[in-house]
Amino acid sequence: MPWYFYAILGPLLWAIVNQADKFLIERFYKKSEDAAVESSSPGSLVLFSSFFGIAVSLVILAFVPSVFSVSVTSALLLILAGFINIGWIICYLYALQDDEVSTVAPLFLIQIAFAYVLGLVTFSETLGVGQILAMLGVILGAILLSIDFSEGKMRLKKRVFFLMSAASILEVVSSVIFNYVALDSGFWLSQFWQYAGLGIAGLVIFFLFKKYRKDFISKLRTSGGPIFSLNIGSEAVTVMGNLAINTALLLAPVAIVYTFVSFQAVYVFILSLILTRLGVAGLTENTSWRSITPKIIAIVIMIVCGAFLF
Question: Model-level pTM greater than 0.70?
Answer without folding.
Answer: yes
